[in-house]
UniProtKB/TrEMBL annotation:
CDD domains: UBCc_UBE2W
Species of the source: Hesseltinella vesiculosa
Keywords: Ubl conjugation pathway
Protein name: UBC-like protein
Top-level taxon in the UniProt lineage: Eukaryota
Keyword Chaperone: no
Gene3D superfamilies tied to this protein: Ubiquitin Conjugating Enzyme (3.10.110.10)
One Pfam assignment: UQ_con
Boundaries of every UBC core domain copy: 5-146
Amino acid sequence: MSKTLFSKRLSKELRDLNTNPLEGVIVEQAEDFKRWRLRLRGAPGTLYEGEMFRLEFRFTPSYPLESPEVLFIGPEIPVHPQVYSNGHICLNILYKDWSPVQTVAQVCLSIQSMLSSCTKKELPPDNDLYIKSAQSSPKKTAWAFQ
């Protein structure tokens, strides 16, 4: 995908996020097309109500054909069965089920939904082992989805 299309797509997404902000999602930093930081507020009535988390989106010029790298950055990393303590997120739409029609806003909604459906704050059972062997990019992990 050419840089022009990549830039146009992200410019449109950023404009949409600023024009029609999602409830509980705040664009914190998006000066370039390589890395965006957003704040995500835990939804009312959930285990994460009132908590604020920070997400980082890392884009390559292949976006949207290739998914962005998305992770929580500290120290506000939620304790959740699908979120490792290094911020890596085990969510299929970020990897094998990515579709170029998905947007940053839709990814944020999916992550909010994942957090909202949680019934117990706990780390993934293999957190310690994963942290020891994980690469810096969650996209280099061979995720096993149920």
